[in-house]
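Ligand-bound model needed. pyridoxal-5'-phosphate.
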Amino acid sequence: MSVETYYRDSWAEIDLSRIQHNIYELKQTLPEQTGIYAVVKANAYGHGDIQVAKAAEAAGVKGFAVALLDEAIRLREEGIKAPILVMGWVRPEDAAIAAREKISLTAFQPEWIEEAGQSLSPTCPLSIHMKWDTGMGRIGIRTVKEMDELLTALDTSLYTLDGVFTHFATADEEDATYFHEQQERFDLLLSAFQERWSGDVEIHTGNSATAMRFPETMNHYVRFGIGMYGLYPSPDVKAMDIMPLEPALSLHSKLIHVKQLPKGEAISYGATYVTSDEEWIGTVPLGYADGWKRSLQGTDVLVNGKRCPIVGKVCMDQIMIRLDQQYPIGTHVTFIGRQEEEEITSDEIAAHLDTINYEVTCMISYRVPRVFVQDGKTIGSQNGAR
Ligand SMILES: *Cc1c(COP(=O)(O)O)cnc(C)c1O
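Prediction:
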């Protein structure tokens, strides 16, 4: 793995052993015949796509799922040979590129099949998975009539139909009523499909929440995203206590300036924070351009195993924090992760931002170097700013 140099004191640490642990945990609950597609879209939810993909492959995942053709091509360029499925819509004129790279695409529109087919040739057919919209309302065929239209358009000299799949909208909620409705719709479409199609296809329906909660109904594959990164799909699923996941990402920086201010001195843009006493103020080189949003003003970071609040407005590249005492320059500051007995989780940050943990790891920007750790040793790094 490559080590890229960087010249700043803020970094995200990605513990690849934890990613592998989370895969093993899921594997133990899945039936023998159910394989795992690691979902590494969006730079592996901000963790670093290539490094995560290689670690996941070593832990036994059978393939990868991404959202964009660009993401799939990046994996191929970095030497990933396993099956890759693009789960989103790809422009039909780009289908030949996918075919050449042996990347599977998602299909659900007969006109797309016609148009993409014009650039394909029987010497290099395109692998497709047919998407069924059973209630997510996003992409996919909804009826047997639409399935028939798609299958009629499908020229089997240009395409191989390798999979059918759907996506659940509420699998992370305690109430499974709507999940079961979607499951019923899926079963109806599946029996209609099996009457019409004799070839072998992979069937996959489950994301992390579905795979963790209903492992026995997962058919050939699951698409394992958030759980692989050690985060629970929702507080509901976390409360179910199904398996012990370990968060792979932590976010760190260092104090670059420390000063003692008298009472009544203002901090940062707008002078919104004023010291209420003599206070030790530290400056930390991480800001909203690194993904630490302005609305995180007032939340805590960890210094010396203790919580310290962010005071004043978050700047583009820096924040100020109130320290409990003087600390030397270079003192470790943790934004996400553990210091001694204290921990700040992505779930805590998500709650502050009124969002989900998925968005927290995705929001850490390209500018923050990723440092990859395996079995406690640093094995590589990626500097997104260059
Ligand atoms: C992102 C995505 C997944 C992964 O979902 P997680 O909840 O992160 O496991 C699975 N399937 C589809 C279609 C997706 O878009």
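The mean pLDDT is 97.
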